[in-house]
## 1
Amino acid sequence: MTTEIDTVFETALQMRAEQIESLLRRLLDERIRPGEIARPDHLLAAMRHGVLNGGKRLRPFLVLESAALFDADSDAAMRVAAALECLHCYSLIHDDLPAMDDDDLRRGQPTVHKAFDEATAILAGDGLLTYAFDIIADEATPLPGDRRATLVLALARAAGPGGMVGGQALDLDAEKNMPAEDGIIRLQAMKTGALIRFACEAGALVAGASVADRDRLTAFGEAIGLAFQLADDLLDVTADAGTMGKATGKDAAAGKATLVSLHGADWAKRQLGGLVAQAHELLEPFGERALLLKAAASFVASRSH
Amino acid sequence: MTTEIDTVFETALQMRAEQIESLLRRLLDERIRPGEIARPDHLLAAMRHGVLNGGKRLRPFLVLESAALFDADSDAAMRVAAALECLHCYSLIHDDLPAMDDDDLRRGQPTVHKAFDEATAILAGDGLLTYAFDIIADEATPLPGDRRATLVLALARAAGPGGMVGGQALDLDAEKNMPAEDGIIRLQAMKTGALIRFACEAGALVAGASVADRDRLTAFGEAIGLAFQLADDLLDVTADAGTMGKATGKDAAAGKATLVSLHGADWAKRQLGGLVAQAHELLEPFGERALLLKAAASFVASRSH
């Protein structure tokens, strides 16, 4: 069911994606900055290949819209959003490596280690991760220094060993030892949940919002992070069902446990409905300003249909 | 020639190494922190393997001694030094990977991808890089927020595509296309020089020293970074001369151009002498307080003898 707000949302998502794309392009074209020696062209080309690939830019959208709730400085929000996208793309480059998921294609294009080589892909990922913190900490991000430090810290926690990188380590382990339900939940909260949560929290941090507001956005981020993963797992089942004629997908074929494989698709759809309702309720205090963020929650959950 | 100050230096270096080792151990034993989900044990073990390996901890020493010049907060300097060491160790873990230098041993121990596996080594490196920024940005580093942000930025620039990671990319390229002298100088300034420079600059940043003092420490760091690399290249020639009975080493055998291979060992020794004199002169204004840092410059250069 497509309602008016969904159409508005899709237009807004695309507009935001273009804005972010333009900033990312500028940031990744920079060849030298104070305190640096000229960045090698080949490395920059690999970094651009990994980032400028037509992604939906959902995480940046969440940063920008959560920042807009609080009338935060929009230039600052844009830079934080771009930094988060650089970090997200580094994680995809490293995930695709032969030693990890060994993927040759992403969005129909050769992955970075295919288009360049493995060593360059490792370094392009390292470079993007490092640059993400640079972009936030830089005085060009028009925020007081302590707020820039808080954002660096929150991003490092979301992305590090107690967040995304830890989730990736658990995921590798899960291929050998199938985790129980609590293990799956932990893995997903770290691997995909942590960055989505940061994206929502970041808006409050950029604005210097109250702890209560920050907590509200964090809870919203956690709800849609769960919904995102559940929708993904559901998509894995239903998408393949269309092409393979049966209700088993890539994860199931790989013997990978998901909440959908444990509880079934109907349960997952009910859960999704509950998560979206919870996410919407968390944003009630913001009234009409939160319409696009609410639509984002619905969008994230509806990827399975 | 061993003088009294050299003996004092070696004792101080060892004492500092033990202090840093103890802080690193505490930081790498942390299983969960605010905003995180519990870090996977396996990943933490790989991170510890890559860091707690008995290094000399030269870079942390430079941070601590440059901070001491300005009476900077020593807890803050310790945390910045530990962060830098985590970052340095991530770079070694990734450099050792099969797709990069493909080394099985480091300091006589199996490298991380040998002791664990390749995927875990990639993630341990990613985790350490991310954690380095966390450690600095954290309020547990007792500095005003804007100073923490400045330190994050300086470290990101030294470590990123316009610094260490860029140098590593140039180094890979140099194996295929032998660079000319200016290319070698650029490569080395990025690959090893940038972090050593940051180590010296960091003391001034922790202290919030004047721009003039920061510039002085930066110049000192650049001089000893050059000396470090020259001594390394010289060591490659002279160390192998002893065992192989001729004056060609690993780099020469690999067809790798260095300033030593271009200009010869005698030229390199004269250069080293000049760099040490320059480094010492830069520290003159600090008088006796700079004795250990001056000794560090001599130590770095004398690794070739």
Note: DSSP finds 14 helices and two strands in chain A.
## 2
Amino acid sequence: MTRDDARALDRSDPLAAFRDRFALPEGVIYLDGNSLGVLPRAVTPALADTLTRQWGERLIRSWNEGWIEAPQRLGAKIAPLIGAAADEVIVGDTTSTHLFKALVAALRHDPARRTIVSEAGNFPTDLHIAEGAVGCVPGATLKVVARDRLAAALGDDTAVLLLTHVHYKTAERFDLADWSARAHAAGALMLWDLSHSVGAVPIDLAAAGADLAVGCTYKYLNGGPGAPAFLYVARQWQAALANPVSGWMGHAEPFAFTDGYRPAEGMRRWLVGTPSILAMASLEAALDLWNDIDMAQIAAKSAALFAILAEAGAAAGLACVSPADPAQRGSHISFRHRHAYAVTQALIARGVIGDFRAPDVLRLGLTPLYLSHEDVWRAGALLQEVIADEAWRDPAYATRNAVT
Amino acid sequence: MTRDDARALDRSDPLAAFRDRFALPEGVIYLDGNSLGVLPRAVTPALADTLTRQWGERLIRSWNEGWIEAPQRLGAKIAPLIGAAADEVIVGDTTSTHLFKALVAALRHDPARRTIVSEAGNFPTDLHIAEGAVGCVPGATLKVVARDRLAAALGDDTAVLLLTHVHYKTAERFDLADWSARAHAAGALMLWDLSHSVGAVPIDLAAAGADLAVGCTYKYLNGGPGAPAFLYVARQWQAALANPVSGWMGHAEPFAFTDGYRPAEGMRRWLVGTPSILAMASLEAALDLWNDIDMAQIAAKSAALFAILAEAGAAAGLACVSPADPAQRGSHISFRHRHAYAVTQALIARGVIGDFRAPDVLRLGLTPLYLSHEDVWRAGALLQEVIADEAWRDPAYATRNAVT
């Protein structure tokens, strides 16, 4: 792959026009959109309107002019990206809080099933929150096993299988339908964490028969730092499952101000308190970009970007820990290197922002909406330059550079 | 009280200069700052910087340039308003989620004490969340009693007394020190909901010996719609109490990415997921206003504004349900009227925004930072005009106007 090859790919890129819809940082090739997505240009005027007109002028009246429905309205905008119906998704709270609510509800669903099964090395908050959820249901336990022992861990006592669709470190992707079917064959519910896959790969929860899902919106969906997360509950479970964090926004009649809690119908029962409207406004503007996007084009471009960095990494002698088959991975590429932390810092010094994941992984995010093939080609060339640097051969390098 | 009297009060008002620091809506007298505070002018440039520079340019690097400490930094700015130390308060999540965490932690603290005591007619989410918390602790119960039976309800089984400092409807205020002492005398923890009092009345949690508190920041603190809430845990309980919603941001080492949860020291353990940085930026700019504010001046002006509306209400023949003694109330005034909903609407039509609380309360918020005495005098005159309207005498009025 030459720079000219990359440029040729850019000229025929059907997604090329989206780049202008983002405020890309000057002098930087940003390969960390899998951690924090870039600012969509539409967010700035949307927030200005939310501040000046909706909050500043309309004030409390804005609650009746669109704010109160924001959790459902944004949920309906995420739904097509995950193969859900508009009334199966709600936005608000954090991914962790949604996970807590969904896990406790799943554990309470069938008294004979009180075990959460999940993967060792899953994104930490999934396991941390699972510990907390187990503490809220008498007799509940958490079984955390290696990926190759997950199938064997499912049994008569399994309430829910909790998996992260795309692994945050390696980019390995579970097959949604296959694992949902395995959970169901064991009589368990299937809960997907889509944080590292929504907006990155095609997702069809309905086809997979998934029961529950949560996901982050500040990565590939570009909703802004700490943007509110989403929760999906398949329609057939909406009446049967109860939100353990029973706040007033999930009440059937929040403005009747009655003492006793009575859950709302549908997804609204999963709300807790009042969501940040500023955060919702930013996310909504970011979500509106996706109206015009074909996920098949995203997947195809992601594969092309991956191939460019995989080739560069191989030329540099790096071990790639992400799957070679695009269908088995998300939209980032990870390399293992003894001095991965220092390599990440050296790349940043050259204007390529990726990130380090302990203990030895360099992770580079591939976001087809705003990265060009040439960007990624240049990042690959700089990666080779960094790895060729003689300094790495000195065993004391990492120690010396640990806090740079 | 004449209009000239009100103008004279404005001329000698030590807080008068703060009015210019808010973007007050045109043509409106806004008496709903107890529900959603007015936009502080400083918020707009702060959010522009957060969007354009911090998110847009610095991107992921901003996490190391101030974002990650935002929950503690904002907590330290709220601390002086509630009589807490800087390291006893944290910001993030919603009031409801903080309540859930604090109540479950309190219920688990002593196995012999598994009852939450609270007040009938407390703000609904407090009671709804208490129901949810009780469901997460085996043997726990919720005892909800009328205000005059609270003292008798405390006993050997009480884990925590949950009270809202200022009542959202009537503005009645509990004595912080007195009720904290009663809870302690019964061997229980004291948890205060300060949502309707922070920024409205002087608060000294340390002097009261309070154990736990939560509060809302989008009312008198003007943090923006759905702004993140705060949690206070007195230092002596910080090591003993555990957060049931054990998310990664509360982990001792969130970026070590280890499977097992290990709570951070101090207040950080109460964090759950990633807070919205846009919401935090807005709130922080709003909090910075309070550096220069003397709460005694707020209290004195609140009392003067109350007196103006109390006189107007009395002249109109309205029943005031808020306490006459300023030390026994918050910073709003409520009147009971058979057609309170329609009265609220008629006031709004005349440019006076207050709100209705079912079934029969007209509630008018008094926010000394941006309301003048003359504003409130004019609101009082318009209130008298509305009440004098012959239409109210028609028994069919409310029915006809129920959906205006």
Note: Chain B touches chain A through 87 residues (CB under 8 Å).
